[in-house]
Specification:
Blueprint lengths: L2 E6 L7 H15 L3 E6 L5 H5 L6 H12 L2 E7 L7 H7 L11 E8 L7 H12 L4 E2 L3 E4 L3 E3 L5 E3 L1 H29 L1
Parallel strand pairs: 1-2, 1-3, 3-4, 4-5, 4-6
Antiparallel strand pairs: 7-8
Bound molecules: flavin mononucleotide (FMN).
Length: 186
């Protein structure tokens, strides 16, 4: 069993990205993983704008990351890149906060013109932060995510298949990482 920190970088109170991540959290939990959800928008604004990496709320996120084996990072595409809110958190975390972590990057967006935003914008930042293994990410069109009255989402089958596959790559990498130290010591 791995511990996964699931970070939504959307500032929206009705975020499709956040709802999608919480849906995926449920799938991870059913597979036996422990998931800690984190919505960046729930952090105190002064923690994100105060340029103080030692703010207790930022230290708490750094600690959650320290205890996580894997990280799911989801962002809406804003102006052809990831959200400024997500960047405001990442900028305050330690340089190598993702060292030793398996990371699954996800994005939602309004147009396929920006389907590569994960690869040209988010992935380089995750690499800079020392992520050990960034598994293949996935971009989901906002119109393929339907919010359901119970707080969950349904995802169009054409998008859900590749998304499930991306989640599978992530959990496989987590499992491999869990066995790696034992294998190295054998
Ligand atoms: C300020 C703003 C900028 C956006 N820019 C883009 C963009 O450049 N490319 C794109 O594909 N979608 C863009 N969108 C659409 C959002 O990425 C899309 O609706 C996303 O699913 C919203 O996620 P959220 O509900 O989690 O915030 C933009 C939306 C907003 C509000």
């Amino acid at each position: 069993m791995a511990t996964v920190l699931s970070i939504s970088g959307s500032p929206s109170p009705t975020s499709r990205t956040a709802r999608l991540l919480r849906h995926l959290d449920g799938r991870l939990v059913r597979e036996g993983h422990a998931v800690v959800p984190l919505d960046v928008r729930a952090l105190p604004p002064e923690a994100l704008t105060g340029a103080d990496p030692g703010h207790p709320a930022i230290s708490e996120v750094a600690s959650l990351l320290g205890h996580a084996d894997g990280v799911v990072i989801g962002t809406p595409v804003y102006k052809a890149a990831y959200s400024g809110l997500l960047k405001s958190l990442l900028d305050l975390l330690p340089q190598y906060a993702l060292a030793g972590k398996t990371v699954l990057p996800l994005a939602t967006g309004g147009t396929l013109a920006h389907v590569l935003a994960i690869d040209y914008a988010l992935r380089p930042v995750l690499s800079t932060m020392g992520a050990t293994h960034i598994t293949p990410g996935w971009f989901v069109l906002d119109r393929d995510i339907t919010l359901t009255p119970d707080g969950d989402v349904s995802v169009e089958p054409a998008a859900d298949g590749p998304l499930t596959q991306a989640l599978g790559h992530f959990t496989t990498a987590l499992d491999r990482a869990a066995f790696a130290p034992a294998a190295a010591g054998a």
